[in-house]
Amino acid sequence: MKALIVGVSNPTGLALLKTLASGGVDLHAADSNRHAPGMALVKRWHRLVLPPAQGQEGIETIVRHCLKKRIQVIIPATDEYLHILAQDEEAFEQRAIRLMVPSTTTRRLYEDRLALFSALQHYLPIPGFGVFDDRFDVENWQYPALLRPRVVGGEAEQRLFATARDLARIPRNPDLIVEEPLFGDVAFVDIMAGQDGDVLATVPRSEYRDSRDRPVAVTTHDETLETLGRRAAEVCDIRFAASIELRRAVRGGWKVCGLIPRCTGASMLTAKSGVNIPLLCLKEVLGEPIFREELRYKEVGMVRAPASSINVRRRRSRGRAAPVPDPSAVRA
Predict the structure, then answer these.
(1) 128-179 belongs to which CATH class?
(2) Distance of alpha carbon 88 from alpha carbon 276, whole angstroms
(3) Which of 74, 245, 283, 295 has its Cβ near the most Cβ atoms within 10 Å?
(4) Which SS3 state, helix, strand or coil, does residue 149 take?
(5) DSSP assigned state of 40
């Protein structure tokens, strides 16, 4: 199997390279930054430096590399590249190159929180919400209230308001959404689904801090979280990999409050637990069989390192020494 990971500067790109390498995949890496940490994890002739400008030039560069290297599948590791590649999915398919991208429905729900909550509200517990337009009733909302952008990547930051008087001072904007803040525990359910929408694996995970105040991520067997994650994945038409975010209300149970429609940096943890989601998705794309034992997981934990904690070593050259990422020191 040959796969190209596009966008290898972040923890997700590194996690994809590591988890797929453990499955014997012939890996290639692409990024607009030639010094991206993930570039050090593949062979030199398997690296593709993309043009900085987005658009057709970048797509053509990727297509040429895939045809030359006979790459079968492309996996975007960032939202930016996911959006760019998904727009030209048909062009890749015509050249027998498969894209591991979510469905159109999933992308729409991910990009607009109002659309996500509207789709989920009749099937799953979700936070209270309302569009912050001229019709929003400030006085009858139960405070505190969380104000945030509807669209992913919006310029406005989320803000918490304690009273109706505080929120009333903010100019109305239909691009903002008011939500019920959830102050309880946070959990994620990592999903692996087939191309027909059948959910094959659900792996809940959460975090806590150890005695040294380090964040530790753990997978956990929790039937309630698995059920909520599976149902959310079905409503959102999940294909391949995704993560469902849940938060617990202070007085109440879990509520679904977010969606990530791709693999994340936590793929390292789920693979360690026994479910290698990126590898399973790759097998699904290529039509290879997936066995039942590949969908079972155990409870494991990993200390989460900050994304910036990447050690480098020096490589001597005829000019000045240049820092090179050390593959053995990279953490997802």
Answers:
(1) alpha beta
(2) 27
(3) 74
(4) strand
(5) G
Q: Give the pLDDT confidence score for residue 157 in this predicted structure.
A: 85
288 contacts 198 by C-beta, under 8 angstroms: no
Cβ partners under 8 Å of residue 239, min gap 6: 102, 103, 106, 193, 194, 195, 197
Residue 253 burial (C-beta neighbours within 10 Å; 0-12, 13-18, 19+): exposed
pLDDT reading at 243 higher than 70 = yes
State yes or no: pLDDT of 137 exceeds 50.
yes
Q: Which fold has domain 2-100?
A: Rossmann fold (3.40.50)
pLDDT of 326 strictly over 60: no
User: What's the predicted TM-score (pTM) here?
Assistant: 0.88
Closest CA to 182 of 202, 164, 160, 167: 160
Residue type for 79, please? Answer: D
Alpha-helix residue ranges (DSSP H) falling in the chain: 11-21, 56-69, 79-87, 89-93, 104-111, 113-120, 164-168, 223-235, 267-273, 277-285
The third-level CATH classification (topology) of the domain covering 186-303 is D-amino Acid Aminotransferase; Chain A, domain 1 (3.30.470)
Q: What angle do CA 153, 127, 215 make, to 5 degrees?
A: 65
Write the pLDDT tens digit of every residue in 38-65. Answer: 999 999 999 999 998 667 788 999 999 9
d(CA 251, CA 179): 16
**Domain residue extents for the chain:** 2-100, 128-179, 186-303
52-88 as b/e, with b when 16 or more CB fall inside 10 Å? eeeeeebbeebbebbeeeebbbbbbbbbebbbbbbeb
